[in-house]
Amino acid sequence: MPFANLSSAPEQDYFVDGVTGSLTTDLSRISGSFVIGQHTAFTYKGKSVDVRQIGRELNVRYALEGSVQRCDNRLRVNVQLIDATTGNHLWADRFDKPFADLLDMQDEIVARIARTLDVQLVVAESRRAARTLNPDAADLYSRAAIPGTKD
Q1: Could you tell me if 43 and 20 are in contact, meaning their C-beta atoms sit under 8 angstroms apart?
Q2: ∠ CA(55), CA(60), CA(65), 5° rounding?
């Protein structure tokens, strides 16, 4: 989802939108992931919409929300990975950096978030699969597939 600009300066919108765009690009590189395009995500910019509604409308399982705040020479980025079916937070983190070279800082933050989400999405999908798996059915299937196995 588009990150929110929490700075008092609206001219920081370009940086916040850049973080959103870079994250969209980096997250789309995660094998097996389905990432909504940047232009589609930006239709929600500035709107207060329940993440479960977004999940239904876009047919997505997870949503990444965040905010960017600049204060003097510091930059803070908050991110949350949310299960779009339940609205539960799965992971959250905060990144604080001294305000230096804008693009280098953006690249570093986006890369850290993308690497972390790659791992977090695997963990979330494993938990989801464990909740939906019926061990009795799996056991019966395994027994039926192995010749000579009787109950």
Answers
A1: no
A2: 70
Distance of CA 84 to the CA centre of its chain: 10
pLDDT reported for residue 47: 87
- What single letter denotes the amino acid at residue 134? N
Helix axes 102-132, 13-27, angle to 10 degrees: 50
Which among 79, 73, 41 has a CA at the least distance from the CA of 60? 41
Q: Look at the chain and count its residues.
A: 151
Q: How far apart are the first and last CA of the chain?
A: 51
| Phi, psi at 10, each rounded to 5° | -65, -20
Cα Dmax for the chain: 72
Distance (Å, whole) CA 143 – CA 125: 26
Tell me the pLDDT tens digit for each residue of 43-58: 998 888 899 999 999 9
Q: Give pLDDT, residue 87.
A: 93
Strands 4-5 and 62-71: parallel
DSSP string for 62-98: EEEEEEEEEETTEEEEEEEEEETTT--EEEEEEEEEE
What is the CA angle 28-79-96, rounded to 5? 115
